[in-house]
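User: Study the chain.
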Amino acid sequence: MAAINDVAAYILQKRGPMSAMKLQKLCYYAYGYHLAWEERPLFPERFEAWANGPVSPLLYRRHRGRFQLAAGDISGEPAALDEGERESVELVLDGLGEFDAHQLSAMTHREGPWVSARNRARVGPMERSSEELTDEEIGEYFDALTAADAHGQEG
């Protein structure tokens, strides 16, 4: 199993420079879709329901204070991803990589895992929260998305 810094380094290597917020959201979407497609976590690190959407505190500590990140800025090993992990990340980058950080953040604000965690924490829109998004909620949400996508492609 890769670590979040390995996935972040892989994304930066593949897509080039991006904002720290965009990197966080792409890691989150890669995690969610991988959980649905492969039925296993992409990495062991968790996401918290921060005001701007899901954030990995561990990844945040690695880029804190930096707005823009490029390949080599996150110490991770892109080669640590196995074939299934790379495939999940590639599919997410193909589908969501062109969105900017604010678009991705806005998307997460409409989605069940982040909304549920914010509700559990009983926080307002811009209040701080360290409430974790659960794998159960993430898995159920992304399973439903992939099922809807598959159903839409059949018809």
Observations:
- The beta strands are 18-19, 48-50, 53-55, 68-69.
- Helices lie at 4-15, 20-38, 57-63, 83-96, 101-109, 112-121, 135-154.
